[in-house]
Amino acid sequence: MQFGSGLFTMINSIAKSWFTKVSEFLVVMEVSKIMKTYQDINKETIDRWVEEGWEWGKPTSHDAYISAKNGEWKVFLTPTFPVPHEWLGDLKGKKILGLASGGGQQMPIFNALGAECTVLDYSSKQIENEFLVAEREGYNIKAIEGDMTKILPFENETFDIVFHPVSNCYVEDVQHVFNEAYRVLKKGGILLAGLNNEINYIVDDEEKEIVWKMPFNPLKDKAAKEYMIKGNSGIQFSHNITEQIGGQLKAGFTLLDIYEDTNGSGRLHEMNIKTYIATKSAKLSK
């Protein structure tokens, strides 16, 4: 009986110790989830979208690359309207930064036109696609997995052009992005940016009713965060014109040109309501 009692005590002690360690592990896991940044969430979201066949994660084809070498090409800052060729000019020998522009869509075209390309994107899947196209077509590219909400890993006045398609809707503080773009551009350099205006964040899923108060910020609005999570849409933010165009001016840019665009599908698109803006701005010599 004494032996049996001791064995029971030992087993009970081991079980309690195991249960305690498992509980501690689960607590650590839950804390880790709570501490995950919105940037982490968005990185995971974009990676998943790419795996699911996201339109903006499909690499450009070999035929499109060859066509670009022959002078026939188009790239996009917004969903449907191609960037005017004159916005880019002659790209031979130009240094271009694709800011949040991974995926193997724009950089291959710029390479075909003679540019020296660098791309920064926090999606590992988008970076993989850049290397995939570069290897297929036989050129070199600097593709960096990085976060544009941080200080960019480049020296001052490095690039002739910063190409920045719609993406700052995944960033809470857009002023930092414009400040950094200005810093890394050479004097006389150009920022080409795709901007998402507030309209997409005002309406319901069917784009029929105004349901959200601006600004749309899931970090400060529990309902907005739950809505984003339920839709597997990452963490997105609305930004007004003051933030986006005013933000470029505040950073030091001079606005040179502008055009608008639609979503490309949905009720707002069918009604020709513009929900995107593309801007061409310059870092003029002072």
CATH class of the largest domain equals: Alpha Beta
Question: Could you give the order of the helices and strands?
Answer: HHHHEHEHEEHEHHHEHE
Mean pLDDT: 92
Helix content: 40-55%
The biggest beta sheet reads: 7 strands, mixed
Q: Strands across the major sheet, in which order?
A: 3-2-1-4-5-7-6
Question: Using only CA atoms, what is the Rg?
Answer: 24 Å
What is the number of E strands?
7
Total discrete domains: 2
Total helical elements: 11
CATH architecture of the largest domain: 3-Layer(aba) Sandwich
Shape verdict: globular
Strand content: 15-25%
Poorly predicted segments: 27-33
Kindly name the structural category: alpha/beta
- The CATH topology of the largest domain turns out to be Rossmann fold
Task: Summarize the topology.
Elements lengths: L1 H34 L2 H14 L10 H8 L15 H4 L6 E5 L6 H7 L3 E6 L2 H14 L4 E4 L13 E6 L9 H11 E12 L2 H4 L19 H9 L10 H11 L2 E8 L4 H5 L5 E7 L4
Parallel strand pairs: 1-2, 1-4, 2-3, 4-5
Antiparallel strand pairs: 5-7, 6-7
Your description of this structure?
With 286 residues, the protein is an alpha/beta fold. It folds into two domains: 32 residues; 246 residues, Rossmann fold, CATH 3.40.50. The protein is 42% helix and 17% strand. The chain has eleven helices and seven strands. A seven-stranded mixed sheet has the order 3-2-1-4-5-7-6, sandwiched between helices. Strand 4, helix 7 and strand 5 form a beta-alpha-beta unit. Helix 3 packs parallel to helix 5. About 2% of the residues have low confidence.
Task: Summarize it.
The protein has 286 residues and is of the alpha/beta class. It has helices at 2-35, 38-51, 62-69, 85-88, 106-112, 124-137, 174-184, 199-202, 222-230, 241-251, 266-270; strands at 95-99, 116-121, 142-145, 159-164, 185-196, 254-261, 276-282.
